[in-house]
Design a protein that fits this description.
The chain is low in regular secondary structure. Helix content is 10%, strand content 10%.
Length: 136
């Protein structure tokens, strides 16, 4: 856990460490590397409270070589970020997003989704809010 540590960049060394729970909540990180979504055994990921506005895209070569990312992920907290949409590789997510206080949830609440985005309402939770991070 690296919560509220005033980080401005994602520590790349963490991409190699298998961990079931990971939180960098409450920092100043605006870019998340694709490698994070390939961390072995990652089940819970908390990025809440960071100024993230976009997730990395995956090209076809990476997808065919490495397979889909975030396979073990079950819970993903992106609350209080600047995310307004999700990349296409997250379209058939088996995990649940907590996305309260995001531009994405503002769009969902205003029914401002395209017909291709209506699926978001099935796995994006815009109502649950506790706090940023876990406090570890």
């Amino acid at each position: 856990m690296l919560e509220f540590a005033n980080l401005t960049e994602f520590p790349q060394v963490l991409n190699k460490i298998p961990m079931p729970l990971f939180s960098i909540a409450g920092n100043k990180i605006s870019a998340i590397p694709l490698e994070l979504f390939y961390v072995p055994k990652l089940g819970v990921l908390d990025l809440s409270g960071n100024p993230i506005s976009k997730f990395p895209d995956i090209d076809a070569v990476t997808l065919s070589t490495r397979g889909p990312p975030a396979l073990g992920l079950k819970f993903f907290d992106i609350a209080a970020t600047n995310l307004s949409d999700l990349p296409s590789w997250m379209n058939d997510s088996s995990f649940k997003f907590i996305a309260t206080k995001t531009p994405l949830c503002e769009r969902i609440s205003r029914d401002n989704l395209s017909s291709k985005e209506v699926y978001l309402t099935t796995f994006v939770d815009c109502t649950t809010w506790t706090n940023i991070g876990y406090g570890y």
